[in-house]
Amino acid sequence: MSAPVLVVGEALVDIVGTAAGRTTRNGNGKPKATPGGSPANVAVGLARLGVPTELVTRFGTDPYGDQLGAHLFGNGVQLAPGSVDPGFRTSTATASLDAAGVASYQFDITWEPPALSLTRGCPAIHTGSIATVLEPGAKAILAFLKSMTDQPVTVTLDPNARPTITPDPVSTWAAVRELAALADLVKLSDEDCEFLRPGLPADEIAAELLGVDRTRCVVITRGGDGAIGISRDGRVEVTAPAIEVIDTVGAGDSFMAALIAGLHARGLLGATRLDGLTSASLRDVVDYAVKAAAITCTRHGADPPTADEHGARWGA
């Protein structure tokens, strides 16, 4: 078995509420606690798509932590040493769904990761979300990525902006730029773009991020309108399939996992650092990711598809 992709970031429990007229997973309109956290969701999505995955995170052995551990282990995610800490209180996010099923969040989170290290042969490191902006863990991630500059590993970043955690877009964008300069691929949502760089077209934001030596590709998701991928060799635009949306919880994380999985399948991770990524292969991996996110939107909560489910729904 190949060395696992390393995912670094928060694992927490989503407590999902409802808007009038909608129900949660338990079907009765009452809040439902489900495993979540953007990096943890990406790790589960990768494992379900058949990519060996290790998660560096931290949660406790309280009931929420036990729920998280069972979910991660049950989906084949390896946990790095120190990720389960009996002295740590498991973090939570309260998600409220609007009438269209779009989620907004309030967080009760502490982030201090265990020691970060790279396994020999690791093809990629993925990080993002709250873990990259909340201290003291944010400094540890930044230092870790800086130490990876000369290592044969591909770095991917999904900032997943959270205005309730970092309300100042100027300072948050500065932090994102510093991390993005250490990443080969950066994924943003249209909501991230509007918060971080209000009024700027997506292509201009991508150009800013591509203006450093390391970053080779920027992918921007646009909800029901699909996604665009911009590399140094070209630009692709992929439309989203028509679906009936249940909710959007975890859709962006499913997209990110499928994007990494698609690159992994094409041998574009590791020391290649996306070298050889053509417009055709970029279109293929973005299309694969859009369709993974679409499946997630057709069911409740952060529930990414397996490789078999993806193939059965959309074909090989």
What does the secondary structure layout of this molecule look like, with pairings?
Blueprint lengths: L4 E4 L3 E5 L15 E5 L1 H11 L4 E4 L6 H12 L3 E2 L12 E6 L5 E6 L15 E5 L8 H11 L6 E5 L10 H12 L4 E5 H7 L5 H8 L7 E5 L5 E5 L2 E5 L12 H15 L13 H19 L9 H8 L2
Parallel strand pairs: 1-4, 1-8, 2-6, 4-5, 8-9, 9-10, 10-11
Antiparallel strand pairs: 2-3, 6-7, 11-12, 12-13
Helix pairs in contact: 1-7, 7-8
Family: Belongs to the carbohydrate kinase PfkB family.
Keywords: ATP-binding, Kinase, Nucleotide-binding, Transferase
Pfam families: PfkB
Task: Jot down its keywords.
316 residues, alpha/beta, UDP-N-acetylmuramoyl-L-alanine:D-glutamate ligase, nine-stranded mixed beta sheet, four-stranded mixed beta sheet, 13 strands, globular
Could you describe the 3D structure shown?
By secondary structure, this protein is of the alpha/beta class. The protein has one domain (5-302): 3-Layer(aba) Sandwich (UDP-N-acetylmuramoyl-L-alanine:D-glutamate ligase). Helix content is 33%, strand content 20%. It contains 9 helices and 13 strands. The chain has helices at 38-48, 63-74, 137-147, 169-180, 190-196, 202-209, 251-265, 279-297, 307-314, and strands at 5-8, 12-16, 32-36, 53-56, 78-79, 92-97, 103-108, 124-128, 154-158, 185-189, 217-221, 227-231, 234-238. The protein has a 9-stranded mixed β-sheet with strand order 5-4-1-8-9-10-11-12-13, sandwiched between helices. A 4-stranded mixed β-sheet has the order 3-2-6-7. Helix 3 links the parallel strand 8 (124-128) and strand 9 (154-158). The longest helix has 19 residues, at 279-297. It is globular and about 50 Å long. The relative contact order is 0.14. This is Carbohydrate kinase. Belongs to the carbohydrate kinase PfkB family.
